[in-house]
Amino acid sequence: MLPCFQLLRIGGGRGGDLYTFHPPTGAGCTYRLGRRADLCDVALRPQQEPGLISGVHAELHAERRGDDWRVSLEDHSSQGTLVNNVRLPRGHRLELSDGDLLTFGPEEPPGSSPSEFYFMFQQVRVKPQDFAAITTPRSGEAGAGAG
């Protein structure tokens, strides 16, 4: 079993979507998330208001740490990214922990429905035969910019 990490979508009409990431061998890589499918590894397409998700909304940076991956999240959006309901300042990176809750898009007012893009971050181990479901990085090596 090989170390991977996942984003499990738990909010919005398409809850249950699962993205599994196994970075290629090497120092690390970057995965982009956002509205622009041509630039991003994971396309976040809002059903109601497209402007709530930026073209390249955020990046996941994965770096090798022993037998696992150290994964950090960096916000590039105009609408915001939250980790455990705390807004991540634009351009800042935060190391993620297993079970962290990620929200892409603006903070929801109290009593409103949760964001369409609400995910749980998970550290997992995957069998090599399951690699057909792995998301591969489009954006290249660690440190790739949002372009």
UniProtKB/TrEMBL annotation:
Localization annotation: Nucleus
A cellular component annotation (GO) from this entry: nucleus
Domain FHA as annotated: residue spans: 31-88
Highest taxon, organism lineage: Eukaryota
GO BP of this protein: regulation of gene expression
Keywords associated with the record: Nucleus
Pfam families: FHA
Keyword presence, Ligase: no
Described purpose of this protein according to its UniProt entry: Potential transcription factor that may play a role in the regulation of genes involved in cell cycle G1/S transition. May bind to regulatory elements of genes, including the promoter of the transcription factor FOXO1.
Protein name: Transcription factor 19
Lineage: Eukaryota, Metazoa, Chordata, Craniata, Vertebrata
